[in-house]
Predict the 3D structure of the following.
Amino acid sequence: MADVFTMTEEDILALGYDDNGVKTPIQQTQMNWIWIIQASNLHLYYVHGTQINWMDQQIINEDIWHTYRSMCYNPKLKSSIKATSAINLHSNTQVNSASSSR
C-alpha cells in the first residue's frame, strides 16, 4: 500500500500494461480508485492522528470505505491530495479541518 500512497499524479497517469506488445494505459476508473485510496488514507490519518493499519477492520471496513467514497471524497482535489475536512465516519461529526499538499 505504501507504493500506492506515494504515487504522484504523473505516476498514476503513466500506469499501463502490455497488451501484446502495445502499452495500453489503465482506464480512468482505475486511476480514480487510486486517487480515492490516497485521499482516504490521508483523511483517516487526520481523523486518527496516526499512520493507518489497512488490515485493522475497526478502522477500515466496507461501511467506512463506502461512506468516505460516496460522501467525503472530493475528486476536484485529486491533483494535490488534500483533506479539506476530516470527518469522523464513526460518529459523522467533524473532527478537524486540515490540508496537506505533496
